[in-house]
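call fold target=Sodium:solute symporter family protein
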Amino acid sequence: MTTWLIILGGIYIGLLVYATIDARRRINTSDDYVMAGSDIGLFFGFLTFAATLFSTFTLLGMPDFFRTHGIGSWIFLAVADAGMAFVIVWFAFHLRRKAFEKGFNGVAGLLRDCYRNRWAGYLYLGGIFVFLVPYVAVQVRGIGIFLNAVFPDTLPVWGWASSIVVAMLIYSELGGLKAIIYSDALQGSVLFTVTGIIAYGCVENFGGVSAMFEQVKAENAALLSVPGPKGLFTTQFLLASFLVILMVPITQPQLTTRLVILRDMRTAHRMAVAVGLFALLLILMIIPIGLYGAINYADASVIDFLANTIIFDQAPVVAAAVAIGLIAAAMSTADSQIFALGTELRSLLSGDEKKVMKTTKLAIICFAMAGLVVAIISGNQLVLLARVSFAGTAMMAPFVLAAILSSRPPGLEIIVATAAGLLLFLGSVTGFVPEMVGPFRLDLLLLLSLSTLTILSLVYRKFTHATSGGEHAKAQSWS
């Protein structure tokens, strides 16, 4: 494995260096740096969106999720991600139209302009900072734990995590968003390929798909149904998770920005279909990996199960490709989110462009360090930690949609309600607020309440505007 690791690692580093140099050569303006020139075609658009969406937890979180909770995970992950493809098409149309009307440097700046209130931009920036930093931590901690288990005498977990953060800062600071997109293309291709190879090997080990399900049924039949052995997949959990994942392209700026910088709407349509198909196939391939662990490593720790399944039980060349793919996944997703945080801050700044860019680059470094700290102190429940991140940002979906879909500035009450909802959800995550309100999950109740309040606010303001307009017209006619 070591020989193959050196060979494949050298190839990956060489490609990444070349991509960074090429991206830096193409930077002529600040827009080129933060928006990649706003002319991304289908191939890179699809790969950068898919790679940003699917990251380290694809191989370090999802297999254990299937091993522990069964194939109900398919509903939680694949069906919701496929449904998200339809949201991408619809939202991309309205977002790009609003961005053309108002100009676009980031979602925070766009919200400030739509609401005509600077607090709208500050609220969005604060919300994504609080809930994206844990997702950055998912990437670097996950790969740090894994590499420490596979190469125990090389670096501690924090050493691997720090190395990854430094590496991604180098190429993202030098090459901007274009370098990140190139990195995404590499990561997405490698991740999909190695996942397919491992899944095929697991199915072959069972003796076929039918034999796989028969063995799992004999060992633990609860893995083949919901709510699963642990009772996680309740109706409310699945509904809340489905809605949360649908909101990801609306509320997470690293994905929202990619919808804006696509070449045209035709490219957006094709990209959405490709991402939906990618999601279905990729997560389908995770099922046999998780069930393989349920049969062969049912009582093993998470890291032992993963190390054996995707490294030690594989051919050396496959194991080396997995290690490289996981490192690439950690970097390409984490750098997208960190860079997006910097971009959102930039959209709220004004003044000399050179000073703004210096502040933006410094902020990117600070955000990366925050993610590294959380990675070092956080736990190992990667998929659930990722879901908390998705759920937290999803609370801002009605707030964002009100700005994008309304032709007039939405009301201050939406900003206040969203801020209160974020605080309540954060309280439930930290244990200060109950996760259940009577028979209802708090996250589901908050999302539905914020959606209802936002709709009522928009309808009321539209009605009062129409009424006042009619009264004004009558007064002018009488005069």
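return ok
The domain at 1-396 is CATH 1.20.1730.10 (Sodium/glucose cotransporter). The chain has one domain: 1-396.
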